[in-house]
Amino acid sequence: MAEGIANSIGDFLHAAVLAVAPWLFEVHWFTWILLSPVLFLAYAMFAGKRSNSKFKRLELPVEMNHEAFQQAGLRVCYKDATVSFPNGRT
User: Fold this and answer.
1) From edge to edge, which strands make up the β-sheet containing 68-71?
2) Do the strands 68-71 and 62-64 form a parallel or antiparallel pair, or are they unpaired?
3) What global pTM score does this model have?
4) What DSSP state is assigned to residue 82?
5) What mean pLDDT is predicted for residues 83-90?
6) For residue range 37-58, what is the model confidence (pLDDT) as tens digits?
7) In this predicted model, what pLDDT tens digit does every residue of 15-31 receive, in sequence order?
8) What is the distance between the alpha carbons of residues 24 and 17, in angstroms, rounded to a whole number?
9) For position 82, what pLDDT does the model report?
10) 81 Rama sector, left if φ>0, alpha if ψ -120 to 50, beta otherwise
11) Residue 68 Cα distances to 5, 7, 64, 73, angstroms
């Protein structure tokens, strides 16, 4: 029973590859160059939703204590009631 199901799935996949293969090789090379970034971005968007993705946004380290909070060059000092920006302005 399981062998018959596996064979039918294999036959389906074989037929699907044979149906798509001529189209794959008849497309011009510049179409693949233009299509590649679109496929990569679609994959990156899909992969970014997974927890173990290498395409997830990098999280910058956060330094926090009872007096201040600092992340990505921005510093919020609760004690002095100031906010310091990365360009030096406070």
Assistant:
1) 62-64, 68-71, 74-77, 82-84
2) antiparallel
3) 0.34
4) E
5) 88
6) 888 888 877 766 665 556 555 5
7) 887 777 776 667 777 77
8) 10
9) 92
10) left
11) 63, 64, 6, 13
Q: Which residues contact 44 (CB under 8 A, 6 or more apart)?
A: 55
How is residue 27 written in tokens?
């497309």
Cβ atoms of 62 and 70 within 8 Å: the answer is yes
**Residues 6 or more apart in contact with residue 78 via CB below 8 angstroms:** 66, 67, 68, 69
Sequence-ordered alpha helix ranges (H) in 1-90: 2-26, 29-48
Q: How long, in residues, is the chain?
A: 90
Locate 4 and state its tokens: 């018959």
